[in-house]
Amino acid sequence: MPQLPAQEVPDSGDASGPRFSRDNTLQALPLQFVGAARDYFGVWLVNVLLTLCTLGIWSAWAKVRTRRWFYGHTRLAGAGFDYHATGGQILKGRLLAIALLVGISVITALWPRAERALTLLFLAGMPWAINAGLRFNACMTSWSNVRFDFQGRYGRALLVFVLIPLASVFTLGLLAPLATQRLARYAASSYRFGAAAFSCAPRLGTLYAALLRSMVLLLAVCLLGLLITQLAGTAMIPEFSLAEMLRGLSGPLPNRHRPLTPGLRMFLAVLPVMLAMLYAAVIVAAMYYSACAHNETLSRCALAGGHRLHSDMAPLRYIWITLSGLAASLVSAGLAYPWARVRRYRYVAQCITVLAAPGLDEFISQQPARRPGAFGAELSQLEGFAVVSSL
Predict the structure, then answer these.
(1) Dihedral sign, CA of 315, 312, 130, 75?
(2) What is the DSSP letter of 22?
(3) Is this entry keyworded Cytoplasm (predicted)?
(4) CA-CA distance, 357 to 34, in Å (whole number)?
(5) Which side of the chain, N or C, has fewer Cβ within a 10 Å radius?
């Protein structure tokens, strides 16, 4: 493994965070992505054509080829990542998922009274299904010939994937930072690199500060939306006025004896624009919070042996890269999608750094290299439950 110049990294100073090595001389190993969009374009185009020709069957192999391409071009300390699943394994899991969903549909059609019980049973099984999908993908991923693993527990999965997110929805997002913190703790403590465990302790105050900034951004985009609404309304109705529109909304509703008021006509004319701007504001705010949470959770992650992670992604730049890539894909009828995906993946990857403690080579050599075989066959059905949990 190539040796990079050592870098002094200050300790977190937070007693509640993960315990790291007392030696502050950590080696900065940046994550590198060496793939080119023109190369991925060929992989993507073949996958699209074969998926269409096989009525979707090839999508299982398409997923494998895509992940192997991205993982293989992602380098850490000179070594690439690898994805070991096969298209046959994924297809088998998806067929199992389809059979399960068809069975549920048939039972509810024959016995309608069973629908509520099956729905509750389905929701109760979601945490297990999510854990199964996460374990499949983790166990099929490796770096330096050492595989990852995921050993999540049902009870904690039920809490972080179902109960806390539901509470966050009912509190209009006020518990979103708590949900992020608990999810990061659960995921990190469940992942393994070989036999080495991860840990993560995101700071709740930092996450709430990110939520506050995202709300300010939401308000700013909404104000911009009002300006765009005014311009669009004026283009459609010369006498358009936001004040007149609001007065029309506060008046009595129209009926067959009371025609539409000018304010209501203005409102109906610009309603699609207002909904589009509101949707855009929510998406932008969500992406901003997601980027901030990504930085906080990764930068508070540690691996046994004193190794740490760090992420310095700029949220506004991440939003620009994502939205400009989406716009390019729409304008080009999807042909720019490979470029947009590679561009976004490269930026996120290159913002991540591993801060390795001394003795990283020995640490890796001590990890068991799990061999494929019966283990892979045993997990092949778990991919299907990831499909079920995402529906």
Answers:
(1) positive
(2) S
(3) no
(4) 25
(5) C
